[in-house]
Amino acid sequence: MSKGDKSSYTDKQKRQAAHIEKSEKKEGKSEKTAERIAWATVNKQDGSGKKS
Length: 52
Known about the structure:
62% of the residues lie in helices and 0% in strands. With 52 residues, the protein is mainly alpha-helical. It has a domain at 11-44.
C-alpha cells in the first residue's frame, strides 16, 4: 500500500474521516491540515485502517 492510499479503509472509516475533515474545515483549518487530522483520528480509533 503506497502512502496516501485509502483503499484498505472501510466505508465507515471513510465516512468518519469525511465528517471529521468537514468539522475541521468549519473551524478554519486548511484543507491539507483538516485531512491530516481526520485520518490521524480514524487511525487512532481503528488501528490504521487494517481490516481483520
